[in-house]
Design brief:
The structure holds three protein chains of three kinds.
Chain A lengths: L3 H13 L12 E10 L2 E11 L4 E5 L6 H8 L9 E9 L2 E2 L7 H7 E4 L11 H11 L5 H14 L3 H4 L12 H14 L4 E5 L7 H14 L4 E5 L3 H7 L2 E6 L2 E7 H6 L4 H7 L5
Parallel strand pairs in A: 3-8, 3-9, 6-7, 7-8
Antiparallel strand pairs in A: 1-2, 1-4, 4-5, 9-10
Chain B lengths: L5 H39 L1 H7 L2 H4 L3 E2 L4 E2 L2 H30 L6 H16 L2 H28 L14 H25 L3 H9 L4 H12 L1 H17 L2 H6 L17 H8 L6 H33 L7
Antiparallel strand pairs in B: 1-2
Chain C lengths: L7 H40 L23 H31 L4 H14 L3 H16 L4 H26 L2 H9 L4 H12 L1 H17 L2 H6 L17 H9 L4 H31 L9
Helix pairs in contact in C: 1-11, 2-5, 2-8, 2-10, 3-5, 4-5, 5-8, 6-7, 8-11, 10-11
The chains are: A alpha/beta, B mainly alpha, C mainly alpha.
Chain lengths: 276, 317, 291
């Protein structure tokens, strides 16, 4: 059993091992001993990670390492699966989203998510897809909605392509466009954090390039956490990278440093393609 | 797939042929059965078709003294009772389906048990529902529900006239009870077929459980649920015994929901003792023909709708 | 920046509404199940007084004269359901084999679709069909007519369950048999049917359950008789018909006879359903009647 002192000591070590650029920076998201799994079958075995604000943080690792589970814990999506269990803390701007009094609905409002396979709502038009989150909160003002639609679609680099067909079904677009629509939909509720679970793995190279460019622009206004198994993508797009293995956080550093000069052997083996 | 041993090939392929032909014949037989149903019903009712023509379904007299057999009141009864059944049965059936498919988180075991209980409802023979309806439900309706309805919604034509319990409304209620298992079972399969990614997308926007159901799941499942409803309608239209106990069996035009009435199906069972001549016999068979057409149309429509969603024309009951 | 705790009237209202809907949904489940409890309870409570050994060995009483028995109905039902099964099983199993083994053919699709439609058909219409076909020409209600009607009603269930349970048998099993040189038809019979046997039994039991409870078709094909069956081409009683006849008459003792018959019927259904569960539990065929 870890005592309070052990935990404190552990955190000092963790703080000291933070990349220099992040020491003293208030993290946007901080997990403390985050465990997640099904029953006692833990997929995540205690993650202490500080996600910096307004940067892109990549979460990488071989299949089964828990990266997707980790990200799904950040917007409390993991617990929706029957039998799912979560322990530990996840602090968004210092407040634990798993606090007993915290409202998952309010939490998820502040965190947007883009999924591996684009999932626009097929029975809704493009317009209604984008404002789906806003109408939940009762927003009915047409002007505000129109403005949000344009703003979000522009922000997702999709406006010019769909501005004349906003009433078409959300499912009538190409794969890459659908994904950008999902991004616009997530942006429309003005979240602070954007979670992306392998957003390009179902897309072709052109669509992927567009979205990667989008990501580098978005970080100005959002904190982005992207799960990816594509090393090149991580190096292109992210500022920081966290390397997971078998449910544990192995290494977390500036992307450039982690790729060129990994501190851990496991990380190095992954980077050089020896497994995963 | 071919047999690899030459020695067996000859007997094999002969045996194969025999099997394929005989079971193929059974399959053909089923199609022939349905077609035969239509043909036989038409020929059996020919006399009536010739005599009454369209008036069969538009006229309101069923009287052997004047040799007139028209079924409009019964048709109206079928439509009314079915409408009531749907109005009551669809929300409840859908509610059960939502419970079983969406809320089963954490109460998995309970949900399966409840699911089986609802299915058990479907296993009770309709004649027993009828008996219970006559002895238990009808008096209850007459003494408690119908007077209340009359005082709240007592518009002439809707809930007017003396409550007697065995009337159109109770017929509709018992039909509702009977179609709930159908609607809930089919709807549950439909809802389970909605991809989880749709729910997750809605959840991640910050929606409550109900909002996820209402805005993401139900719209996606729209056509399938409509199909389930139509299937429930088919069941209601075809149901005979449960209704005949409680509907009052009056072949005149009903004045309100609280009047005794009849449906196409109850008309047949009730009038069967009174067929003394070819014309009345043919008329009863023609009622069957009308039901045949109705059932066929409704059933095919339902399957088309379910097919659109689940890519299969099959659903479990 | 919104809080992670519910705040604002709008948010609280959404939370409340969510709770309300969940209560309503739970309520609908309760409402759905209530009739089942009441029906079963009433059947037991009202029917038990009539039950005695005599109930299974005597014929129905005259009005106002005790409970008698439902021997005529029991024998009649056994006869007609039995004959119906004999007719429906070869046809149903045959069709089911065809659907499962030759699924690509157009006949398969057409017949399978027709089968599904027939399964949901108003049974009174089936009864009228048999009336027109058998009763009208022979000028009499008969056990045969009743049996034919029941057979038509059982057929789709048997065909469907046969198809499903055969489809579950793994392709590898068939391929292994054929690779050994066993001709296709023998493969089907030996390997496939014996492995899917419990599924077939399930289908037949379900068909019997359905047929036993049917009343409407028998009203127009078999009629009624106050005595056990006297001939295949004579009117014949059945348990459901007794419930109908005696339940609507109005005499108190007759009503109790009807409840008693209902209790017997429900008990029989229970036994059948338990047998089905037993079969399903035995093997992992996990077959359910699909319509």
């Amino acid at each position: 059993m870890e005592t309070q002192e052990d935990l404190e000591a552990g955190r000092e070590v963790a703080e000291a091992s933070l990349p220099t650029s992040l020491r003293g920076v208030q993290p946007k998201f901080e997990t403390k001993g985050l465990k997640a799994g099904f029953g006692t079958n833990w997929v995540l075995k205690g993650i202490d990670l500080k996600i910096p604000p307004n940067r892109v943080t990549a979460v990488m690792g071989p299949s089964g390492c828990g990266k997707t589970t980790f990200v799904r814990c950040l917007n409390r999506l993991h617990e929706l699966t029957p039998g799912a269990t979560v322990e530990g803390e996840a602090l968004l701007d210092g407040e634990d989203i798993y606090d007993r009094n915290a409202d998952p609905v309010a939490v998820r409002r502040r965190i947007g998510m883009v999924f591996q396979k684009p999932n626009p709502f097929p029975t809704m038009s493009i317009y209604h897809n984008v404002v789906a989150g806003l109408t939940l909160n009762g927003e009915r003002n047409k002007k505000k909605l129109d403005h949000a639609v344009e703003h979000s679609l522009r922000g997702a680099y999709l406006w010019d392509e769909v501005k004349d067909k906003l009433s078409n079904s959300g499912a009538s677009l190409s794969g890459g466009q659908q994904q950008r629509l999902c991004i616009a939909r997530a942006l429309a509720v003005e979240p602070e954090v954007l979670l992306m679970d392998e957003p390009c793995s179902a897309l072709d190279p052109t669509a992927t390039a567009k979205i990667e460019e989008l990501i580098t622009q978005l970080k100005r206004d959002y904190t982005i956490i992207i799960v990816t198994h594509n090393l090149q993508q991580a190096s292109r797009v992210s500022d920081y990278t966290a390397f997971f293995y078998l449910g544990k956080l192995i290494e977390f550093d500036e992307t450039a440093t982690l790729f060129e000069n990994p501190k851990e052997e496991l990380t190095e083996r992954y980077i050089t393609g020896k497994f995963g | 797939m071919t047999s690899s041993s030459k020695g067996n090939r000859r007997s094999g392929s002969k045996g194969d042929l025999v099997l394929k032909t005989s079971v193929g014949a059974a399959a053909v037989g089923i199609v022939a059965l349905l077609i035969g149903l239509g043909v036989e019903l038409t020929s059996g009712s020919w006399l009536s078709i010739k005599t009454f023509g369209l008036q069969f379904i538009t006229g309101s007299t069923w009287n052997s003294v004047v040799d007139t057999y028209n079924v409009f009141p019964a048709l109206l009864g079928t439509l009314t009772a079915s409408a009531i059944a749907l109005l009551l049965g669809v929300p409840i059936g859908l509610g059960v389906a939502i419970f079983l498919s969406e809320r089963a988180r954490g109460i998995r075991a309970g949900a399966t048990a409840l699911g089986s209980l609802v299915e058990l409802l479907a296993a009770v023979p309709s004649v027993i529902y009828g008996l219970w309806g006559l002895i238990v439900l009808a008096p209850f309706m007459r003494d408690y529900i119908e007077p209340t309805l009359k005082s709240v919604l007592g518009i002439p034509g809707l809930f007017s006239g003396t409550p007697i319990g065995t009337d159109l409304f109770t017929g509709g209620v018992i039909l509702a009870i009977m179609i709930i298992p159908t609607i809930s079972a089919v709807s549950r399969d439909i809802l389970n077929a909605v991809p989880n990614s749709q729910r997750e997308a809605m959840y991640s926007l910050g929606a409550t459980d109900w909002e996820v159901v209402r805005k993401a799941v139900l719209p996606y499942a729209r056509s399938g649920i409509f199909g389930a409803t139509i299937l429930g309608l088919g069941r209601a239209v075809g149901e005979t015994m449960a209704v005949t106990f409680v509907i009052g069996n009056n072949i005149n035009l009903p004045k309100s929901l609280l009047s005794p009435g009849a449906t196409l199906t109850t008309l047949i069972v009730n009038q069967f003792g009174n067929t003394f001549d070819p014309l009345s016999e043919a008329a009863l068979v023609e009622v069957g023909l009308v039901l045949f057409v109705l059932a066929l149309v409704i059933n095919i429509l339902a399957r088309l709708l379910v097919w659109r969603m689940t890519k299969s024309t099959r659903f479990r009951v | 920046m919104t809080s992670i705790f519910t705040s604002g009237r709008r948010q609280s209202w959404r939370r409340i509404f969510d709770r309300i809907m969940k209560v309503l949904i739970l309520l609908s489940v309760v409402i759905a199940i209530i009739p089942l409890f009441f029906v079963v309870a009433d059947v037991v409570v009202q029917g038990l007084p009539a039950i005695s050994l005599a109930f299974f060995t005597k014929n129905p009483p005259s009005p106002l004269a005790g409970y008698g028995g439902i021997l005529n109905g029991i024998e009649g039902s056994l006869l007609m359901v039995g004959m119906g099964t004999l007719i429906a099983v070869p046809l149903g199993v045959g069709a089911g084999i065809y659907f499962s083994e030759w699924p690509e053919s157009r006949l398969s699709f057409l017949s399978s679709f027709t089968n599904d439609v027939l399964a949901e058909f108003p049974t009174i219409v089936v009864g009228l069909f048999v009336y027109s076909l058998v009763v009208a020409p022979t000028r009499t209600f008969s056990a045969v007519a009743g049996a034919v009607a029941l057979a038509i009603i059982m057929l789709p269930i048997i065909a469907r369950t046969t198809e499903e349970s055969l489809k579950i048998v793994p392709v590898t099993l068939r391929e292994a048999s054929m690779a050994l040189g066993v001709p296709r038809w023998k493969t089907i019979f030996r390997v496939v049917i014996s492995t899917g046997k419990s599924g077939l039994a399930t289908g037949i039991l379900l068909g019997i359950a359905r047929a036993t409870g049917e009343t409407a078709p028998l009203v127009v094909t078999a009629g009624y008789l106050n005595f056990p069956p006297t001939g295949l081409f004579q009117q014949t009683a059945s348990v459901p018909y007794i419930i109908y006849n005696f339940g609507t008459a109005g005499y108190p003792n007759w009503t109790t006879v009807a409840w008693g018959a209902a209790l017997v019927l429900v008990a029989f259904m229970l036994i059948l359903n338990l047998s089905v569960k037993f079969f399903i539990g035995r093997r992992s065929t996990g077959v359910r009647a699909e319509i």
